[in-house]
Amino acid sequence: MALKLEDVPCINLGQFILGYLKKHDGKSTALVDGTTDKSYTYSELIERTERAAAGLQRFGVCKDDVIGVVSSNCPDYLIAFYASALIGATFQPVNPLFTTEDIKKMFEQGGTKYVMTMPEMIPKVTAAISSLGDTASSKVIVFCDANAAGDHVTFQSLVDSSDGQYTIPAGDPKKDVVALMSSSGTTGFPKAVLISHYAVVSNTLILDTAPLTHPADSLILFMPLFHMYGLYVLAMYTHFIGARLVIMKKYTPDDYLRLIEKYKPNALQVVPPIMVMLSKNPKVSEYDLSSVTSISCGAAPLSKEIEDNVKTRLNLTCVRQGYGMTEIGVTHFSGKDDFRYKSVGKLLSLFEMKIVHVDTGKTCGVDEEGEIWIKGPPVCLGYLNAPEETKNFFTEDGWAKTGDIGREDEDGYLFVVDRLKELIKYKGFQVAPASLEDVLLHHDAVADAGVVGLPDEEAGELPRAYVVKKPGKEVIEKELIDFVNGKVAPHMKLRGGVEFVSEIPRTASGKILRKTLREKAKTFAGQMPAL
After folding, report:
1. In 3-state terms, what secondary structure has residue 479?
2. Domain at 251-317, CATH class
3. In CATH terms, is domain 318-406 a member of 2.30.38.10?
4. Is 190 left (phi over 0), alpha (psi -120 to 50) or beta?
5. FRET pair for 300, CA 20 to 30 Å: which of 107, 138, 276, 427?
6. Which tens digit of pLDDT belongs to each residue from 349-387?
């Protein structure tokens, strides 16, 4: 049955998910720590969430206060999200691989008042906080026991000292921001995307019209909880339907395969690098994966060879794909019965889409390529403190311009064929070339630089730099690679290498012609010897 707009309640996200948690069997397993095997029933998850909400309010967290979270995956990360939503705070997930300087920028950008982290990340987090020059360092909450937290408050202590009595503040779920999610913008440092309570509620109900899994299933989550795909598209949705969520702190092939064998999920939610592993890793045959009947793959395009290998190896009829982005939610998803190769499926309920010719601005016809524009309840409110970027993202009549190029066939199947955006996708992480170019230009020997993705079967793309040397200056490839790698997060390292050129191709207005550089990278990739 199609979802109607009136079916979407205008409600606080915490109230929304708590209402569904209370509908499920309280004795069934809701959440498992994949590292320790510690588990929570639905009754225990409800109690911990409510006690955490009360504990956070008692600690001083108020409506609209921003809680930064710098942590790897763990059960309390997700519980903190639910609790934060209940009391009207704003959750700000931060990539734990970010440098101290990156984290500082995120906190400055968000106006962060409280920070949740793990013991091993305390030095980096406190260094970032101390540079802000306020008392925020006394507002660090640690996911661990008291012995490892030092002088900081633990999340567990907030739960233990709580009576479970909290107040849900009045507000407007369509305007109140439940999360500041990061968008890897094409012009440099990630922007903070304003996600409302209503946006997540509506996208959750929309996703349920094309279910990712079912209530009796288990979902093995390796996707980072700092990403919308991990946090609410997969993790929260699993609890929405009453299934069992197994959270991995860190992905390794052996651990992932072991957890599949142990918890026997019917459906896997993966990204292309995991498909490569399932296709080629000999260890796959050492584990019992017979429970798997469906795979959904997102985040980046997938080669036919890899897809066919996985289907053969796991005896699957298709690999389902979908489309979405932080700013608009998940808009498309292919089902088992309406699968079409290379398509991300049909438009989901409550969304509108049109494909617009990039040059003329006219709406495209069947199978004509243009930019994908979206409208719908899950679309974000814009970017924090970035009115110009927000204005550029939306049209005057409210369409969100995705920056992706696609075409729709006569039956309504969407095919995403290219992107206007310049992002490099490395193992599901998005890398903004401009950020790497900025680092390179700080080297004394670099006059100009352009960065693009080098095609790579396992990772998707590897950041590769094209560099013009300053006259009279000498520098070698390794020196520049080491220079950059020492200043950036791991996923941003120049794994694709450096090539010296006489000039960086640019338009008359000075913009880098990345298409030209991408062609050079493709040529280089084609000349690389097979491993």
Report:
1. helix
2. alpha beta
3. yes
4. beta
5. 107
6. 999 999 999 878 899 999 998 999 999 999 999 999 999
